[in-house]
Specification:
alpha/beta
Length: about 160
């Protein structure tokens, strides 16, 4: 299975980028993992929040293909413990999903078209995190899930 973390915009933090890269390297030991950063929408001063999320949504949808399992990282998504997330990931692998696309939206969330295309929603927490830090947190959780599935000593429970 290929796991792709699809995000809006580049991170302006070298530290966050380094964390995402480090956990990406680790995840690549278990499966192919990629981070795709879509360009930020330009001239947002002249756009409403809805218009901006619609334009971001069009870019997101262009990156997905039929057969992809698209899961949104959304504040209204399902919350799980790390062990539960590992089991969730294992189910996707067992079901024959070839490409799992995990999407971090822009500052105004997702468009209706993206919600309609999604196969599911996950939430990291009821707390709000910056869109940049979510990348690092979620990359780490993917790595943690694989170590849980392989009974490796990274996760302590």
């Amino acid at each position: 299975m290929v796991i792709e973390l699809l995000v809006i915009g580049k991170t302006d933090s070298k530290e966050v980028a380094a964390l995402v890269e480090e956990y990406g390297r680790r995840v690549n030991r278990y499966c192919r993992f990629a981070v795709t950063a879509l360009p930020d929408v330009r001239n947002t001063r002249n756009l409403t929040a809805r218009q901006q999320s619609t334009l971001e949504g069009e870019a997101i949808l262009r990156q997905t293909a039929d057969g992809d399992c698209v899961v949104l990282l959304d504040e209204r998504g399902e919350e799980m413990r790390s062990v539960e997330f590992a089991q969730w990931l294992q189910k996707r692998m067992n079901s024959g999903v070839k490409r799992l696309v995990l999407v971090v939206g822009g500052p105004y969330g997702f468009s209706e078209a993206v919600y309609a295309r999604a196969d599911g929603r996950l939430s990291l927490s009821r707390m709000t995190f910056s869109h940049q830090i979510v990348r690092a947190i979620f990359a780490e959780q993917i790595y943690r899930a694989f170590t849980i599935l392989r009974n490796e000593p990274y996760h302590h429970e």
